[in-house]
Design brief:
Shape: flat
Number of strands: 19
Number of domains: 3
Helix content: 25-40%
CATH class of the largest domain: Alpha Beta
Largest sheet: 6 strands, mixed
Radius of gyration: 21 Å
CATH architecture of the largest domain: 2-Layer Sandwich
C-alpha cells in the first residue's frame, strides 16, 4: 500500500490514444500534452539489425524520402499492432517524452483499443505498453473513450450514438449505462480516403503521388458533399509513363467523387448499427442524434451527408481529433468510471 501511494504521488498517469495515423498523450491533471504521427524511422544494417532513427513528426517527414537502408514505418495497421517491436519503441519514446523527469517511476496508463479486437491483439497492446515502461495498464475501447471525450452521458439509462472515424478504422457504437449496447467496426478511415485519392490521381492523370500529398489534398480540398464554390490546388508527383516530375491542378469536385467509396462504406456501417439497435435506444438517438469524433470526421460536410442519409441530427465533438484521448484521460480522474469503462491487465 505504501509503495502504491508513493508511486501515485510521483507518477504522471497517462492516457494514450495509440492511433493508426496519430498518437496522442494525455497527462492526468494537465490534459493533452502531445500529438504526433504514429511513424517510426528505422535503419537496417547489413546484418538485418534494426536501429530507431526518429519517431513521430521527424519520422513522418522521411516518408517516401529515405535511402534504401532506412524505412519510415507505420507500426499500427487498421487500429492494431502490425509491428510489435517498433510499436514498443514508439510507445517508449512518447512515454519518456512526457515522463522524462520522473524516469525512475513507472506510470499507470490507460490505452485505447478498437472495439471487437481479439484477445491476442489486446494482449499485444498490453505487453507493448508494459515493455515500454507502464507499471499498470488499463484498456478502454475507442468508441467508449470517444463518447466520454465528446461529453455524451454514457452512464445514464439512455442511448448515445458515437461515430469515431480514425486513420485505420471507423468505430460506430450505441452506448448506455456505461456499456456498449450495439456496435460495429469497419477497417475504413482516413487512410482509405488517402488511398482513394492516390488511385484517382493515377487513373485520371497518370500521376503517382505519395500518401503525404494525398493527405494534403484531402485536408485542403476534400469534401463529402458538393461545395458552393469548388476549391482547387496544385498537386505535384511523378508521371507514371515518363517517370519525370509533373504538376497538375485538381478541384474539389473530382476529389469528392474519388472519396465516394470510403464514405459510402462508412454510411453503410452507421445504418447497419442503427438497424441492429433496440427500439428504446433508437428512440433516444432520434432525440439526441449522432456524435462524430476522430480526425476523419473533419472531412468537409461529412456531417451533412450523414444527416441526409440517416435523417438524424448529426453534430461534431468540440475537439474531434482529441476526443478519444480526452475521454481516456477523464477516466484517470474518476476511479468509478475507470472500473466501469476499462479492462485491467
Amino acid at each position: 500500500m505504501f509503495f502504491d501511494w508513493l508511486y501515485g504521488l510521483f507518477s504522471r498517469d497517462l492516457a494514450v490514444d495509440l492511433g493508426t495515423a496519430t498518437t496522442l498523450i494525455y497527462v492526468r491533471s494537465q490534459g493533452v500534452v502531445a500529438s504526433e504521427p504514429s511513424v517510426v524511422a528505422v535503419e537496417t544494417d547489413r546484418g538485418g539489425v534494426r536501429k530507431i532513427l526518429a519517431v513521430g513528426r521527424e519520422a513522418k517527414e522521411m516518408l517516401g524520402r529515405t535511402p534504401s537502408y532506412i524505412e519510415a514505418i507505420r507500426p499500427m495497421k487498421d487500429g492494431v499492432i502490425a509491428e510489435f517491436e517498433i510499436t514498443e519503441a514508439m510507445l517508449r519514446y512518447f512515454i519518456n517524452k512526457v515522463h522524462r523527469h520522473k524516469a525512475w517511476v513507472r506510470p499507470r496508463i490507460v490505452i485505447t483499443v478498437p472495439h471487437g479486437i481479439t484477445d491476442v491483439e489486446r494482449r499485444a497492446v498490453h505487453e507493448a505498453a508494459e515493455a515500454a515502461g507502464a507499471r499498470e495498464v488499463w484498456l478502454i475501447e475507442e468508441p467508449m473513450a470517444a463518447a466520454i471525450g465528446a461529453g455524451l452521458p454514457i452512464t445514464e439509462a439512455c442511448g448515445s450514438m458515437i461515430v469515431d472515424i480514425g486513420g485505420g478504422t471507423t468505430e460506430v457504437a450505441v452506448i448506455s449505462l456505461a456499456g456498449i449496447a450495439n456496435s460495429r467496426s469497419l477497417k475504413v478511415g482516413g487512410d482509405k480516403m488517402d488511398e482513394a485519392i492516390v488511385s484517382h490521381m493515377k487513373k485520371r492523370y497518370g500521376l503517382v503521388i505519395g500518401e503525404r500529398m494525398a493527405e494534403e489534398i484531402k485536408i485542403k480540398i476534400g469534401s463529402a458533399y458538393q461545395l458552393d464554390k469548388p476549391l482547387t490546388m496544385e498537386v505535384k508527383g511523378r508521371a507514371h509513363q515518363e517517370g519525370i516530375p509533373k504538376t497538375i491542378n485538381v478541384n474539389s469536385d473530382e476529389i469528392r467523387e474519388a472519396l465516394t467509396e470510403p464514405i459510402s462504406q462508412i454510411i453503410k456501417v452507421i445504418k447497419l448499427t442503427l438497424e441492429g439497435t433496440r427500439p428504446e435506444l433508437s428512440a433516444d438517438i432520434v432525440d439526441k442524434g449522432i456524435m462524430l469524433a476522430g480526425g476523419g470526421s473533419l472531412l468537409r460536410n461529412l456531417d451533412v451527408v450523414i444527416r441526409e442519409e440517416t435523417g438524424l441530427p448529426t453534430m461534431m465533438a468540440d475537439d474531434p481529433v482529441a476526443a478519444v484521448v480526452t475521454g481516456a484521460g477523464k477516466v484517470l480522474e474518476d476511479v468509478d468510471l475507470l472500473r466501469k469503462s476499462t479492462a485491467r491487465f
